[in-house]
Automatic annotation (TrEMBL):
Signal peptide: none annotated. It comes from Paenibacillus filicis. Coiled coil: none annotated. SUPFAM superfamilies: Periplasmic binding protein-like II. This is ABC transporter substrate-binding protein. Pfam families: SBP_bac_1. InterPro entries: Bact_solute-bd_prot1, SBP.
Length: 446
């Protein structure tokens, strides 16, 4: 996914690219060859990062007979080397990466392991290009799937099979200014699902009193939300349904939110308007993060764009799939297992919430110890009891996460490109929906 940083907050612009881990310039073709007595496992990544590089180093120290080769599509520039390098990645880079890796995998080549965040998972699964990881788990007595969050694992399935292993994830939430909502005499239950239509009522009430609803809500990101929440209807068994009232009404609803001043593309958090903002988009990208928020900000469920009141949505940050054509599957599986180990799941370089339940609990306990010792930077809660309460609230949200936000990256990009002309008033909803329909149809038939 592409994540854009705004005043220190990481804001997800869709299920585009969060990390920077994806492929080599050629897509990272599998080698599987024996080199100096070692088996080589090629991992396709867009850009190397500290977590993956440290994982490779530590894994190879423990497995002298296996070499892990990270093939990156785009090298990190000097200015952000060693970090995530997010600012250097464009949607064009993502598109080229997706096309490169997809072409190789469909042709029977490609890397042994692939970071799947941006890749067309449905297409790969439908063409039987990925290994069902449940089959490998069943044969491996050393692997205990009970160490992982069962709800995240189940929601990550395609049918009854697990073809992509989540390594870490983020809860797709919003932060609400509880003090401001109380001042405006508006009640929103942070523990219950709601939808964008319900938010419109809240936004109108906020506006009437001189406040703002959302102010860091990018219209493209909102479009992605609408598409992802309705993906099964918009792309049904490989057939697009964008030339429909269903999709045209989605576009109209999004545009009306901005036209009516209920959402703002800008970031008023940089100005004196910050205290007038009721909600801001925000996932949870780490255990310390939840305790560095001011007391007046709390996590609320994100409005759904499907009209249904679903559970807590989540998105993958690191997620790996194993190429069914790989001839080093046991070695590749060993690396996946290592990424899920306590050692790597508690790594300070891991972005997001760990998939390993024990590692997550350890991280939360370490944060509490930092509070007790006074070493947690930017700690914003007034006492330890409130910190424990917030941790328990987040643990509850994690246990309720059962809606995986995903779709085909290429479909999202096509829609976003054409959607801009509708938002600017250059083209009608009918014209744009037909353009998207034709382009998506062409892509899906490739």
């Amino acid at each position: 996914m592409i994540h854009l940083k705004k005043t220190g907050l990481i804001v997800t612009l869709s299920s585009v690219l969060l990390l920077s881990a994806c492929s080599g310039n050629s897509g990272g073709e599998s080698k599987g060859e024996t080199k100096d007595g070692k088996k080589t496992v090629v991992v396709s990544v867009m850009m190397k990062d500290r977590f993956l590089e440290s994982a490779v180093q530590k894994f190879e120290e423990k497995h002298s007979d296996i070499h892990i080769e990270l093939k990156e599509y785009k090298a990190a520039p000097k200015a952000v080397e060693g970090g995530m390098g997010v600012e250097a990645i464009s949607l064009g880079d993502v598109e080229k990466y997706v096309q490169s890796v997809t072409t190789q995998v469909i042709s029977g080549k490609g890397a042994d392991l692939m970071l799947m965040n941006e890749l067309p998972q449905d297409k790969f699964v439908g063409k039987k290009l990925l290994v069902n990881l449940y089959d490998l788990m069943a044969k491996d007595s050393s692997f205990d799937r009970n160490t992982l969050y069962p709800n995240i694992l189940k929601a990550s399935q395609d049918g009854d099979g697990l073809y992509v292993m989540p390594i870490s994830f983020t809860l797709d939430l919003v932060r609400g200014n509880t003090e401001l909502l109380k001042k405006a005499n508006i009640s929103v239950d942070k523990n219950k699902p709601w939808n964008w239509n319900e938010y419109k009522d809240v936004g109108k009430k906020m506006k009437q009193q001189g406040y703002q609803g959302f102010d860091n809500l990018n219209s493209t990101e909102l479009l992605f939300d609408y598409i992802e929440d309705n993906y099964g209807q918009l792309v049904d068994k490989g057939k697009p349904n964008f030339d429909s009232d269903l999709f045209r009404n989605m576009m109209k609803e999004i545009k009306s939110m901005y036209d009516d001043g209920l959402a703002n593309e800008g970031l008023s958090g940089l100005s004196s308007e910050f205290n007038k903002m009721a909600f801001q988009m925000a996932g949870i990208y780490g255990t310390e993060e939840i305790l560095t928020l001011p007391e007046y900000l709390e996590y609320y469920q994100k409005p759904s764009a499907s009209g249904k009141k679903n559970g807590v949505p989540f998105k993958f940050i690191y997620s790996l799939a194993l190429n069914s054509k790989s001839n080093v599957q046991p070695e590749a599986w060993a690396f996946i297992k290592f990424l899920l180990s306590d050692e790597m799941q508690t790594s300070p370089n891991l972005t997001g919430l760990p998939m390993n339940k024990g590692a997550a609990d350890q991280n939360f306990n370490e944060v509490l110890q930092k509070i007790k010792s006074g070493t947690l930077e930017k700690y914003m809660l007034s006492d330890e009891a409130k910190a424990k309460k917030r941790i328990e609230e987040v643990k509850k949200l994690i246990s309720e996460a059962d809606v995986r936000k995903s779709s085909d990256m290429k479909v999202l990009m096509i829609a976003s490109e054409e959607f801009k002309s509708y938002m600017s008033g250059q083209k009608s909803a009918e014209e744009v929906s037909k353009l998207i329909q034709n382009r998506v149809k062409t892509y899906l038939n490739e």
